[in-house]
Amino acid sequence: MEYRELLISKEKSIKEAMAQIGSSGPKILFVVENEKLLGSLTDGDIRRYLMAGGKIEDSVYDACNRQPKKIAHSLEEARGMLSKHFIAIPITDENNKITDIYIGSSSYKEIYDQIDVPVVINAGGKGTRLEPFTKVLPKPLIPVGDLPIIEHIMRRYEQFGCKRFSLIVNYKKELIKTYFKEIENKYQINWFDEEEPLGTGGGLSLLKDSLHETFFFISCDSLLLSDYSDIFKYHRQKGNDITMICAYKNVTIPYGVVNIDEEGSYKHIDEKPEFSFLTNTAMYVVEPSLLNDIEENQRIDFPQFIEAESKKGKKIGVYPIGESEWLDMGQMSELEKMRIRLYGE
User: Fold this and answer.
1) How many structural domains compose the chain?
2) Which terminal residue of the chain has fewer beta carbons within 10 Å of its beta carbon, N or C?
3) Does residue 185 lie in a domain region?
4) What is the pLDDT of residues 183-239, one digit of tens each?
């Protein structure tokens, strides 16, 4: 990796930084002005800034850590500083100008904290947005590269020490069960069969007697490249009943948007404006006590359930992530994008 890929000008926006961090190995940027080091910026810095009321249009300088804890003045010095907690060491000259960044090797590999948290995957839907593929295969078995999407999801959780899986199944469930019986990699799976479609949340009622600890809950068409251990720690620290993992989605209107006054007269035109929204990735951290609020055999989508729990006074938190951390295969157009992100061109 060329060290300049980890530099970002103080004039850039947080939105631009989120895209750049998403494509960088060490998940850190160094904020510079004329290549002089001003601060460091991680996805955690960005998240804290946004949750404190900052906006993604703001300057990266507003969100960065202006006192980086580790700075070296030579390659030898940087080698002695590298650790799990300081994964990228900027090397500066006497004028505080960055001359290099040491990350240990050209093939950076993330090290994740291990958490033993159960994972519930809703794998029962028909996947109508992926027809005609799902006329033949259930959505969890739609391949993305060498593996079906559900295995990509499960392997990602395993990287964080999450090896206990509960799968809620319905549509073409025997195909899903047969697949897992025949593959070489043996997962620890508990199966929960819906007799009738119960929506994206109703199937959780089947787990009332078997799940008694905080768990991850995810739909089987989303893969997140985020730090799951950090998500879990955030959920616990905030004392949330449910934490929604939400991604900033940037949308560009491909036209000039005309603004008018109250009398219908022209004011001004915004050419191809961009908007950013926090969108639901369908991944959550959930407290098991909430399962008692889901009626048996009642169809309900999980966002509806969240709305109902919020009205009851339950604490619903939001953990924001960058758009590039969310791979969504719910639509045909996204399948190839997901494959390229996971396997390269």
Assistant:
1) 2
2) C
3) yes
4) 877 899 999 999 999 999 999 999 999 999 999 999 988 899 899 999 999 999 999
